[in-house]
Amino acid sequence: MAHARDKPAIRREHLSIEGRKPPRLLENPLAVIAKRSRFEITMFGDLDEEPVKDWLIDDLLGAGEFSCFWGMPGCGKSVAVGDAAFHVAAGRPWHGKSVRRGLVVFVAAERADLTKRRFTALRKTYGEADAPLAVVKGRLDLTSSVEDAKDIVAAVRGLEERTGEQCVWIVIDTIARTFGAGDENKQSDMGAYVQACDLIREELAAHVSLIHHCSRAGEKPRGSIALEGAVDATFKVHKSGNLHTLGVDKENDAPDRGSIRFRMEAVELSRDRRGKVTTAPIAVPDTTTIVDFEATDGTRIVLGTNKGPRKAVVAFRKALAEAGQDHPCGRRAVAVDALRKCLREAFGGPNVKPESLAAIERRELKALVAKGDAERIGEWMMAPANALPH
Predict the structure, then answer these.
(1) Taking residues 96-122, what's their average pLDDT?
(2) What is the DSSP string of 31-62?
(3) What is the Cα gyration radius of the chain?
(4) Domains of the chain in sequence order
(5) What is the pLDDT of residues 268-325, one digit of tens each?
(6) Pairing verdict, β 207-213 and 133-136
(7) Where would I find the beta strands (DSSP E) of the chain?
(8) Of 152, 150, 139, 67, which Cα lies nearest the Cα of 105?
(9) What proportion of the chain, given as a percentage, has pLDDT over 70?
(10) Which of 89, 201, 293, 330 fits as disulfide partner to 104, beta carbons 3.0 to 4.6 Å?
(11) CA 106 to CA 135: how far, in whole Å?
């Protein structure tokens, strides 16, 4: 019986690789790994040395990114975003900003018929009947599963084939009407909603914008903070009288925090047999803004319209110009005590009692904030986002 020690010795030539081809080395092992992975991997040394950011709307919306427009009911957010959507589809500059033309899909989960009338008003005003802009009507639940997100992707691909245009922008109006039975305040539900939007965005390589409501106080978007953390940009839409402002609330890659002013203009669409008129609003750029004061350092304080500002607003501008400082939040601000002095000068007089003047001062301080003419942080009053100094 043979034992282990009796096994024949392995001949050396069996171990030699002399005369044999060396094993083929992978030129880029990471590329092979990436093919087997769902992740996109880029080595530090392979990064583009001169990366260029693509914009959907110059310095406002990045191509293929994720954004949210929010504000109080009736502030004009859907009208403003619809106006921007039309301009992108038509390849027309929007408020002086160049755009990347392409198919735009407006998912009107809320008031679809009203949305259609608004777009009709834009077509009646500007023409461009061939602009690749589509309104999608239907129920959506982007929280419970990804099936509805996949259906949107399929519908948009069908529109791309129909129009011959690549989709560059998808607007979902609103989060509330596409959230299904989920709870906006739960991070898990908002996270599921964001993932569904990411699927749409990544599959179509298009920018996705959400139109959203805000808290009762109007200070922030409604629901879980998971949304604000997920988007690349947020925009607050504010209304004061007939003046509407779309202000940059958060922007990861824009050169500055600016704002866009517009007002509503009714467009007649039709008349019925009784002569009753059907109209729809469009957003038109506000051209009535004027410069009231210039600070000693050259900073221009831009507030108000040619209709004539209220006396308290004039006092606020004067205080900003004479005693304004750069606040850590990035805005021009004035101490409340300095503003009170300007209010007393504006409203005081020989026939005004001290107690009455004190009451006026308190009332006007509150009114400046309530009417959107100023914002208060602690003991500082500053120009609101819709009137940043520049």
Answers:
(1) 95
(2) HHHHHTSSS----GGGS-SS----EEETTTEE
(3) 29
(4) 55-285 (3.40.50.300), 291-387 (1.10.10)
(5) 999 988 989 999 999 998 866 443 444 444 444 444 444 445 778 888 888 888 888 8
(6) unpaired
(7) 55-57, 61-62, 66-71, 103-108, 133-136, 167-173, 207-213, 233-240, 243-251, 259-271, 277-285, 291-294, 300-302, 325-326, 332-335, 375-377, 380-382
(8) 152
(9) 79
(10) 89
(11) 5
pLDDT at 349: 74
Peptide bond connecting 174 to the previous residue in cis, omega within 30 degrees of 0: yes
pLDDT of residue 173: 95
pLDDT at 330 over 70: yes
Neighbouring C-beta atoms of residue 155, cutoff 10 Å: 15
Cα dist from 191 to 179, 185, 357, whole Å: 11, 10, 52
Which residues are CB-neighbours of 31 under 8 A, at least 6 positions away? none
- Look at residues 179, 207, 169, 191 and name the one whose alpha carbon lies nearest to residue 86: 169
C-alpha of 177 from chain center: 18
The residue type of 244 is H
Q: Which DSSP string do the residues of 324-378 spell out, in sequence order?
A: -EE-TTSSEEEEHHHHHHHHHHHH--TTS-HHHHHHHHHHHHHHHHHTTS-EEET
- Identity of the amino acid at 8: P
Burial of 128 (0-12, 13-18, 19+ CB in 10 A): middle
Q: DSSP letter for 389, please.
A: -
pLDDT of residue 31: 54
Amino acid found at 327: H
- Element counts in the chain: helices (H) and strands (E): 9, 17
pLDDT of 22 reads 53
